[in-house]
Amino acid sequence: MSDPRQVLGRAAEKYRETERHHEAARQAVIDAVVAALRAGVPPADVVALSPFSPAYVRVLAREHGVPPAPGGVKPRKRRT
């Protein structure tokens, strides 16, 4: 039987490693969200493609100096 301290130590190290990978992936998504907004992708499309809520996408836009999307009625997509 394994020493519980060793099991805990291995589990904690695996957790820290996956946490680093998760944070790197999260930052990559944030960078892609900001780039998409700067390129003119509509915020609704950015939200649909990202794992983030509309409110968080707005926060990211503000934090990175992306101007708000123009207001008004948006054209509806045609069904084919």
* Elements, N to C (H/E): HHH
Overall shape: elongated
| Tally of individual domains | 1
Rounded average pLDDT: 92
Query: How much is the radius of gyration in Å?
Result: 20 Å
Q: Considering DSSP H and I runs of 4 or more, what fraction of the residues is helical?
A: 55-70%
Share of residues in strands = under 5%
By helix and strand content, what is the structural category? mainly alpha
Query: So how many helices?
Result: 3
Q: Give the N-to-C terminal Cα separation.
A: 63 Å
> How many β-strands, per DSSP?
0
* Main sheet specs: none
Low-pLDDT stretches: none
Break the fold down into its secondary structure elements and pairings.
Layout: H1 4-38, H2 43-49, H3 54-63
Compact summary:
The chain has helices spanning 4-38, 43-49, 54-63. The chain is mostly helical and 80 residues long.
Please describe what this structure looks like.
With 80 residues, this protein is mainly alpha-helical. It has one domain. Helix content is 65%, strand content 0%. The chain contains three helices and no strands. The chain starts with a helix and ends in a 17-residue tail after the last helix. The mean pLDDT is 92.
List keywords for this structure.
80 residues, mainly alpha, 0% strand
